[in-house]
Design brief:
Blueprint: E1 2-6, E2 9-11, E3 17-24, E4 32-38, E5 45-51, E6 57-59, E7 67-72, E8 77-82, E9 91-99, E10 102-105, E11 109-113
Parallel strand pairs: 2-11
Antiparallel strand pairs: 1-3, 3-8, 4-5, 4-9, 5-6, 7-8, 9-10, 9-11
Length: 115
């Protein structure tokens, strides 16, 4: 099983980025996938989650109205559209999925918001 993120980079404040997380090797059509982030010197924190069937989503308060999580079940891919980015959004972003009692993480993708 594997989660592979892509789409990070350097962006100016107010800019946008879209992260992708491609899942492979997992079975089952019902799942929750999430994006976490970890800034230097800080603990990893939950950013957003989505349910594969209902489309239910959940967001950290600091990103509500700016970030949108979505999924494409045909591609086994989850996205995180990030708009109006702020310097405090700078972090390594990780994709996560709980599968058969085990936490799976992607390798992480760096997002840097700076002028």
């Amino acid at each position: 099983v594997q989660l592979v993120e892509s789409g990070g980079g350097l962006v100016q404040p107010g800019g946008s980025l879209r992260l992708s997380c491609a899942a492979s090797g997992f079975t089952g059509n019902t799942w929750i996938m999430s994006w976490f982030r970890q800034a230097p010197g800080k603990e990893r924190e939950l950013v957003a989650s989505i349910n594969s069937v209902s489309g239910w989503t959940n967001y950290q308060d600091s990103v509500k109205g700016r970030f949108t999580i979505s999924r494409d079940n045909t591609k086994n891919t989850v996205y995180l559209q990030m708009n109006s980015l702020k310097p405090e959004d700078t972090a390594v972003y990780y994709c996560h999925r709980l599968f058969r009692g085990t936490n799976y993480w992607g390798q992480g993708t760096q997002v840097t918001v700076s002028s």
